[in-house]
Design a protein that fits this description.
The complex is a heterodimer. Chain A is an alpha/beta fold. Chain A is built from 23 helices and 13 strands. Chain A has a domain of 274 residues: Orthogonal Bundle (MetI-like fold), CATH 1.10.3720. In chain B, strand 1 and strand 2 form a beta hairpin. Classes of the chains: A alpha/beta, B mainly alpha. The structure holds iron/sulfur cluster.
Chain lengths: 634, 315
């Protein structure tokens, strides 16, 4: 991600803009229009006001009139170019006037804050309480029709857009250190506004200008169209359109042509405006996000059919590989993970964030978002079936049914706009043919089961009305809704505080025992592992580096990484123990080193460790390790 | 809920006051002798004198405002000199026609915009999405008054499918089908820009929402994709789009001025244009105030609707 960009440097704003094909075509169209309008005086054209009664209403392309003539026999092409000139000039002037006063108000309000800000913004809100054009009409009504008055009116109604945007940015800047510093150095307010703040709000002003100038051209043309702007003999595109309208049925070209010009003008400006905004403020870029599909893409070279599964396993994962493609880079988040899950057992999948443990869990039922994720290889077997290649409808029948998930942060994983009862009902009815009332009853039972007091009443609560612990109980209730055989819990207690964590953990354990479901428990915390897991698989950089029973791992950790993770567990009453986190960061999974991925952070590492492929080798009964030194050490 | 509505209504009162202040100030900008300007140059001396008294021009601006406001609160919006009838009567009559037009346009752009936006997001980068994106691009740059003329040429002149102007047929008609036939073209024209804006926003917010954790939860529950999108994602999108629909109400009410002129719809917009041309200032004043007030109510409606959908906004 970093290398390439460092070499070529950051792309310039201009490059970014030019790379945006739409914005570029906007620029080209606009340039052509402006050029033609500016060249109007020197092009071999008839005067726009020269009448020729004998040549009235000539159609386009007829008799030396490229675009035809109007009811007075005036050359439409000439009038069009002159009118375009007027329309652009008026729209641009209105934009500048609005930008000037709007920015001034915004700067003062944002910089002064307090009462000044309050009363200025009240005024702005009042102006915005008017329907846009209506206010302009009222102003024109007071000042009287005319092009200049239309210009003022349109400028005034656009002031609020500038004032609001600029005030927002200024408000943030006015509290920053460099402004304080300038103030302390004795600079006056006006100088600070002009030298410190204005340069920083300039991009916002430019963005607002580029997104409003099209509107202003359109609206001034509109006022002229209504007969309230340009008055004859002066003509802009709007007044041409307005006059032509009277001839709509006999000579439609007289009104269609100027309208087309307004449209092209406004569209090219809008295209450019979008481009400018994307360059100056990439956060607002629309449509940059891609939508995740309902199922992870299966990009394996071979799709293994169904076959018998290892006996005595609820689920068998073999050599699972999941990748993310971001731009040209491929991140191998899961690089060949294998494990068995037996009925009724709890297997802990442990590792730091970024180790690939969550992605492993999400891969099982195709819940890794595509794009950018995809399954690159391996098998996940449930009842002999290859789940990675299963159809979406098959996955949907398993999801929340035989295989259910409990997610990490229940505030973001529960839908904020539905009651918890409703959400549990939905989970039930996705898999059982129950009516609403029955499902609701069952939902309340489930809430009772996860020990939510007053379940009947709380079922009507929305997630935000519950505490974190209660919400996670709801998450668990949802997972239990259809008697799952396999529960996958992805850091279910990480977002909770310590006492609540213990309660939820205990509950989960009990419910799992009771239902005899297999539990795949993902966590980074060995303290939690010792509470709940029968077996543990430790993951590092997308692979399992050690696997064994909880007892084996906790008493005889064989991999240096496992030992460090265990050392990280806070010991009661000894906070400083936690500070002994593992030095260094896990490797980025788009460029894994040869040999042991942990070598850079391992104290026992030597040259041997950085060579070849390391295997997961059995140490003792079902205790396996991926480390060259493990055998010697043991 | 009803207490919330009451509270919002209460908040609307100062906004309405603000509107009257702004309109008053704009009218105070009129150059020259206000009474003559307001009544026009055809005014009789008696009328000028009466208005001068009515406006209390010897008093301060604030006092003038209070008197003016007091009169309006008593239903006295003055008399339109060009129509020779009370402003309030004329304005209320015209407002009904505008409400029908703007209301149907608003309904149309909400439905079409939401549908197009959702479809576009779900089929991101597909042909349907590209087509909709192109339509949006064109739609938001179209001068609506020009589009209206094009539609008249096509549907009324070329194909003779729909009437080109008015609200009812002059002979016969007057029933609902007749109204709908007359309403179709202006309502479509008026809704185009707003449809584009709403579609664009809906698409962006759907794309954002489909990446949320709670959508993954919905999928992990085993829900069908249709339900995930139509229920879980759409409801969230609606919550963020509704305020924008409220704002679009302002553009639609304002845009009605053009459309009513193009289609000779007997609404308040066309009345305003005529009133400005004849310098019938009192009529302008009344018309602007009633449309602005209805915009405030539209926004209030959007606000209440949003609160109804989003329980997090209730405290
Ligand atoms: S293989 Fe070498 S570097 Fe890797 S963990 Fe073992 S000792 Fe450390």
């Amino acid at each position: 991600m970093s290398g390439k960009q460092k070499n070529s440097g950051r792309p310039t704003a201009w490059r970014l803009f030019v790379n945006n094909r739409l914005a570029l075509s906007g620029l080209v169209i606009l340039s052509v229009i402006i050029l033609l309008a500016l060249l109007a005086p020197i092009l071999p054209l008839a005067s726009p006001d020269e009448t020729a009664p004998a040549q009235r209403l000539i159609r386009p392309l007829g008799d030396g009139y490229l675009l035809g003539s109007d009811h007075l026999g005036r050359d439409l092409l000439s009038r069009l170019l002159w009118g375009t000139q007027v329309s652009i000039a008026v729209g641009l002037s209105a934009t500048i006037v609005a930008a000037f006063f709007g920015s001034l108000i915004g700067l003062v309000a944002g910089y002064a804050g307090g009462k000044v800000d309050n009363s200025l913004m009240r005024g702005i809100d009042m102006v915005m309480a008017f329907p846009y054009i209506l206010l302009a009409l009222a102003i024109v009504a007071a000042l009287g029709p005319g092009l200049m008055n239309a210009l003022y009116a349109i400028a005034v109604v656009n002031i609020p857009f500038f004032a609001r945007n600029i005030r927002g940015v200024t408000l943030g800047l006015a509290r920053r250190e460099f402004v304080d510093a300038a103030r302390l150095s004795g600079k006056g307010h006006i100088r600070i506004l002009l030298t410190e703040i204005l340069p920083n709000v300039l991009p916002t002003i430019v963005i607002t200008m580029s997104t409003t100038v099209g509107w202003m051209i359109l609206e001034t043309a509109g006022l002229s169209f209504l007969g309230l702007g340009a008055q004859p003999p002066q003509a802009d595109l709007g007044s041409m359109l307005g006059e032509g309208r009277k001839l709509l049925f006999t000579a439609p070209h007289v009104s269609i042509i100027p309208g087309l010009m307004i449209f092209l003008l406004v569209m090219s400006i809008n295209l450019m405006g979008d481009g400018i905004r994307d360059v100056l403020d990439p956060r607002l870029k629309s449509g940059a996000l891609s939508r995740p599909m309902a199922k992870t893409e299966d990009a394996r070279n071979i799709t293994p059919g169904n076959r018998d599964q290892k006996t005595g396993t609820a689920m068998e994962v073999m050599n699972l590989r999941t990748e993310f493609q971001v731009g040209q880079e491929i991140y191998k988040a899961v690089g060949g993970v294998s494990f068995d899950l037996r009925p009724g057992e709890c297997l802990g999948l442990v590792g730091e964030s970024g180790s690939g443990k969550s992605v492993t869990a999400m891969s099982l039922l195709g819940l890794v978002p595509t794009p950018p994720g995809r399954i690159a290889g391996g098998e996940v077997r449930y009842e002999g079936e290859d789940l990675l290649g299963a159809s979406l409808s098959r996955l949907q029948s398993l999801r929340g049914g035989k295989i259910a998930y409990v997610f990490q942060d229940p505030l973001s994983t529960l839908h904020p706009l539905f009651t918890v009862g409703d959400q549990i009902c939905e989970a039930i009815r996705a898999h059982q043919p129950l009516g609403r009332a029955e499902a609701w009853k069952r939902a309340v039972e489930l809430l009772n089961k996860v020990r939510i007091p007053n379940a009947e009443r709380r079922a009507h609560d929305y997630p935000h009305q519950m505490s974190g612990g209660m919400r996670q109980r709801v998450g668990i209730a949802m997972a239990l809704a259809n008697d799952a055989e396999i529960l996958v819990a992805d850091e279910p207690t990480t977002a909770l505080d310590v006492t609540v964590q213990a309660q939820v953990l205990k509950l989960l354990k009990e419910l799992q025992r009771e239902s005899d479901a297999a539990l795949l428990f993902i966590t980074h915390d060995f303290g939690v592992v010792s509470e709940i897991c029968d077996r543990v698989a430790v993951m590092y950089a997308g692979r399992i580096v050690e696997v064994g029973s909880t007892d084996q791992i906790l008493t005889r950790p064989a991999h240096p990484y496992t030992r460090k993770l265990i050392d990280c567990v806070p010991v009661m009453g000894r906070r400083e123990k936690r500070l002994e986190a593992i030095a260094g960061l896990p490797p980025v999974v788009n460029r894994l080193p040869a040999g042991c991925a942990f070598a850079d952070r391992c104290e026992a590492a030597d040259d041997d460790c950085r060579k070849g492929e390391l295997l997961l080798e059995e140490m003792s009964d079902r205790h396996a390790v991926r480390c060259r030194k493990a055998k010697e050490a043991a | 809920m009803s207490s919330y509505i009451a509270k919002r209504l209460l908040y609307a009162v100062p906004v309405l006051f603000g509107l009257t202040i702004i309109v008053f100030l704009i009218m105070a900008m009129i150059p020259g002798d206000p009474a003559t300007a307001i009544l026009g140059s055809y005014a009789t001396p008696e009328n000028v004198e009466r208005l001068n008294r009515q406006l209390g021009l010897d008093k301060s601006l604030a006092e003038q405002y209070w008197i003016w406001l007091g009169n309006m609160l008593q239903g006295d919006f003055g008399r339109s000199y060009s129509l020779n009838r009370p402003v309030l009567d004329e304005v209320l009559e015209r407002f009904g026609a505008t409400l029908i037009l703007a209301g149907s346009a608003l309904l149309l752009c909400s439905i079409l915009g939401l549908l197009a936006g959702v479809y576009s997001a779900v089929r991101q980068f597909g042909w349907g999405d590209r087509l909709i994106t192109l339509f949006v691009l064109i739609g938001i740059s179209l001068p609506s008054f020009w589009l209206g003329l094009l539609l008249i040429l096509l549907f009324a002149v070329e194909w003779k499918l729909l009437p080109a102007s008015g609200m009812y047929a002059i002979y016969g008609g007057g029933d609902l089908p007749d109204l709908i036939a007359h309403l179709t073209l202006p309502a479509i024209t008026l809704s185009v820009v707003a449809t584009g804006v709403i579609a664009r926003l809906t698409r962006a917010s759907m794309l954002e929402i489909l990446r949320q954790d709670y959508i993954r939860t919905a999928r992990a529950k085993g829900l069908g994709e249709r339900r995930v999108i139509a229920r879980h994602a759409f409801k969230s999108a609606l919550v963020s789009v509704i305020p924008v629909i409220g704002i679009q109400a302002g553009f639609v009410l304002g845009g009605a001025v053009y459309i009513e002129t193009v289609f000779q719809w007997p609404g308040i917009g066309r009345m305003l244009v005529q009133a400005i041309a004849t310098r019938d200032i009192l009529l302008v004043q009344g018309g602007v105030l009633i449309v602005a007030a209805s915009y405030v109510l539209f926004n209030l409606l959007a606000d209440v609707l949003q609160h109804k959908l989003d329980p997090r906004l209730k405290t």
